[in-house]
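Hallway conversation turned thread

IA: we were arguing at lunch whether anyone had actually written out DUF11 domain-containing protein end to end. Turns out nobody had. So, for the record, here is the sequence (158 residues) and right after it the structure tokens. Reply here if something looks off.
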Amino acid sequence: MRKAQSAGAVVAAAAAMAVVTGAGPASGAIAPDADVAYGGHVSLSAGRIAVWLRSVNHGPSSLANATVRLQFSEPLADGRELSQGCLRSGQHEVLCQTGALPVMGEGQPVALDLWTRGQPAEVTVRIDTAWNGGATDRNPLNNELEVLVPATGDPYFI
């Protein structure tokens, strides 16, 4: 297993455990409150999807890590190596670690160079938080994004 997939596998396993078991803060503990938001751009040209994404935490609590989920309306081609901390979780989905998210700070940027199985005229990209360590996010609208990306090669902002 490649190093990038190994790190991402740990994140995916933690996210799956949190979703399946409802794991979060210890029983009786107060969940941290962190407002995670995403921004960046995505482009599509001749089946190539280029994504640049940044994660920001507006606080009031810091997070040790979070997992961002990127879902694509078109199936992704196999055989592409992903950025460190990212892994494929299906034909249409990629999960990536954000790294530490300090209050009013940014995580590590995510840069992806992906290919679709064909050459679609457009792709819809959905972005959301798959896992945030059990934190309460009172403003989920800034971390649940969707953008329609025509195959013009132009960057479309998320």
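OS: looked through it. The radius of gyration is 16 Å.
IA: good, adding that to the notes. Residues 3-23+34-151 form a domain with the Immunoglobulin-like fold (CATH 2.60.40.10).
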